[in-house]
Amino acid sequence: MSAGPNTSGVKTLPDLLSRNAKTIGSKTAYREKEFGIWQTWTWSEAEAEVDSLAKGLLTLGVEVGDLIAVAGRNRPALYWAMLAVQKTGGIPVPLYQDAAAEEIAYALENCNARFAIVGDQEQVDKIADVRDQLPNLKHVVYLDGRGLRKYDHSHLSSYAAVQDAGAKANNDAELKARQDAQTYDATCVMLYTSGTTSKPKGVVLSNRNIIETAKNSCAFDDLKANEEILAYLPMAWVGDFIFSMGQSLWTGFCVNCPESPDTMQADMREIGPTYFFAPPQVFERQLTQVMIRMEDAGKFKRRMFHRFMDVAKRVGPKLLDGEPVALMDRLSYMLGNYLVFAPLKDTLGLGRVRVGYTAGEAIGPELFQFYRSLGINLKQLYGQTEATVFITQQPNGEVRADTVGVASPEVELKISDSGEVFYRSPGVFVEYFNNPESTADTKDAEGWVATGDAGFIEEKSGHLRIIDRVKDVGKMSDGSMFAPKYVENKLKFYPDILEAVVFGAGRDRCTAFINIDLTAVGNWAERNNIAYSSYQELSQNQQVLDIISQHVSEVNATIAQDEMLSGCQVHRFLVLHKELDADDGEMTRTRKVRRGVIAEKFDDLLDALYGDMSEIYTETEVTYEDGRKGKIAATLDIRDAELSTPVAKKVAAE
Amino acid sequence: MSEVQTGYVTEDGRQIGDVMLDLRAITLRFGGVEAIKNISFDIREGEIRAIIGPNGAGKSSMLNVISGFYVPQEGEVWFHGKKRPPVKPFQVARQGIARTFQNIALFEGMSVLDNIMTGRLNYTKSGMLAQAIWKGKAEREETENRERVERVIDFLEIQAIRKTPVGRLPYGLKKRVELARALAAEPKLLLLDEPMAGMNVEEKEDMSRFILDVNDEFGTTIALIEHDMGVVMDLSDRVVVMDYGKKIGDGTPDEVRNNQDVIDAYLGVAHDE
After folding, report:
1. Which of A461, A467, A534, B157 has the highest Cβ tally under 10 A?
2. What CATH number belongs to A13-205?
């Protein structure tokens, strides 16, 4: 079934479930490791589970159009819960399981949920904490009853009890009627955005959004019914909904749920997913673990590892892209694969990955190349909740670290005069829940949606490149484009650099504040017998500054190659004497730098960067963890960075 | 001391049953040293019973009397309404009493799973030969035992370390593995010797939650020795206080907290403000 099973009459995800149960009923649909063993459910069994739960929900009084919250870790039963809700005509609203009680309260209140289906006691407790604020919340259903026996069960039942009630109830006709009454354009799911800037907004996605997107994205990567995926990313995230619900139901591939978040790595190795998604942090953590373990390995193994990794770096990506490779290189890669790469991939659980994606944040080129050189087809995609994930993605054979790929199937792209990326696709969201103003701000009458990101399409390859958030992009005094995050990301890809803040809007040149990474630099200092007593002292060590200076000039060299952003080379920089900290208001809680606050707080340093001093004395107020305030004083070196000659410059707006 | 005959109901609504273990006038001597002097108290079904006291008060000796490791020179142990003759620890274990140790006593080189499986020894009836051949009853037993062990692993949330050798684990987790091994024996009465010694606040909170959950889910009666007064007062239904081998207090945490002898001997707080 290359184009997916027959689709006639399919309007909803429960329709796809029924179709799978009919056509591939005995195929494994869900697995979950429990009690040390992988428990499996076929599509027919899954349908039976969903049906009894849906009937049980009817007995609880779920009405058509009810918004029903779902919160918990990835478990088959919770995916079924979402399907059961849809079957009864309700709308599932998955919530982040680690959200605080107030955030849960906000979401439940905002969508006026009458029911909630949750994983365990933790979630029940969180809802109980805020129950007073939620007069409309009628009933809570929980999956794992541990610790809940003594709770008042007048508005609380176990998942199994609801299923039992459903199995006994005589309401099949009503359930069928409700399922049949649904349309392709009815709401499929509502997902909350992360809300970095304001209160989270509920993004309403229709059946059409989900099913069309699933269809197109499966065709793009040729995903089939025999794929295996690991469902470990939050269920409230649109990506998980598309992978574990949309695509899985569309193609019929199997969704595997780990035993617990801690066992994810081991469980992944046992499953060996063929289609895998992870944010850059996950890949980074894996790589660090590999490197640490290699350092502990014997001399012979270590040398073998490094020797063949050199081969892999040179040859691997070319092989993956199908480019010509010399015979000798090919042979040593094969040997390396036998001795190093294949066992390593197996340990990481990536041995069978056919298609891997990373998204969410910029991924360091070295990190990206490491995985690709092992022969793992890791690609990037660019997307957002409002687009039902996919805006652009990289086709096989056209993978690069610095682009996010070409427009996904049936997605149209447009760059506005201000440089902002707009898209239009079958996946474009219906609306923000109860928020017509925001909907109108984001989506115009013709269906074009603003991403809030500035980018451009490379002429040669047709790939989209994202530069920065639109609101951060500015112009320098000579009119050339200034994109601080672009430069900062390049700097941050060096392990020695933890944070970087680049200034230059309205100025004639760019400068930067840099934070060293204490773990990486401290490790280096230890290996080189460099004594230091504090972060501050290490940060001003001349050898450390030399290293950072080296990094900055390398970054300058790459920026100089960029036609549009060559004006963003960092002319002068200093290494800050303290780590930027959310407690001091310099960063957000999600560790994003607050450029404005930093510029104001360290205005003396900023003036010095644009002056001609080679060092400056400064005093800074800091907040300790217990809330007390103190002052630290330091004399900071200001360094001039080496600049590269830019390629012929193009003016930002043509 | 409460003199209820047929159990009582706790503040949080749990039904506490009849007397399960009754210690009557126990005296234990090591040569000339009287470790326990004429102590009597009981443990009721379903309750969490704490034994507290300063170092050297005889708490661990008391636990060892219950577990059958020490045989008291005087006094009687009544279990489930019957007088218990002097017994060996393995016989006590068969009667449904399991324990953890103050100093962790696990097999360091074995995996967590194998360590917990040793807790199932009393449920293995097939002979050595049958187990070597690995057919029929032996295989069935192993499967049953493993299933029970996996439930305990799930209950204590130690899935991630299932196959890790115990020697590689941090202290707090080792304590949890010990608890797991004791639970694998499906005890009616669980004896915990300082389950929270040496733990940080977070680990203590975790352990407290597990103890409460064990009591709640499996209805296991628990007797525990603990130094952290906060933990004891929060967890237990009734507390016995010992000092120099003598019982100086017995009752609910509130009663004990206000007992002047206890304050003098153990808490060491000033009498009046």
Report:
1. A467
2. 3.40.50.12780
Q: Which CATH number fits domain B1-96+192-273: 3.50.50.60, 3.40.50.300, 1.20.1250.20, 3.40.718.10?
A: 3.40.50.300
CB contact under 8 A, A147 and B216: yes
pLDDT of residue A442: 86
Domain coordinates in residue numbering, chain B:
1-96+192-273, 109-186
Cβ(A304)–Cβ(A283) under 8 Å?
no
Neighbours of A365 (CB within 10 A): 14
Neighbours of A133 (CB within 10 A): 13
pLDDT at B94 over 60: yes
Quote the ipTM score. 0.73
Residues in chain A predicted with pLDDT less than 70, given as ranges, are: 1-8, 194-198, 588-591, 625-627, 648-654
Q: Is the dihedral of CA A541, A542, A545, A551 positive or negative?
A: negative
pLDDT computed for residue B2 by the predictor: 44
The span from the CA of A54 to the CA of A92, in Å, is 12
Q: Specify the CATH number for A473-640; select among 1.10.760.10, 3.40.50.300, 3.40.50.10420, 3.30.300.30.
A: 3.30.300.30
Q: Which of B147, B153, B217 sits opposite A146 (nearest CB)?
A: B217
**Testing the interface with A: which of B10, B148, B150, B154 to mutate, by most A Cβ within 10 A?**
B154
- Is A39's Cβ below 8 Å from some Cβ in B? no
Cross-chain residue pair A147–B155, CB shorter than 8 Å: no
Nearest CB to B162; choose among A34, A36, A146 = A36
pLDDT above 90 covers a percentage of chain B that reads 18
Rounded to two decimals, the pTM is: 0.80
For chains A and B, CB pairs below 8 A equal 34
Of residues B103, B106, B122, the one with CA closest to residue B114:
B106
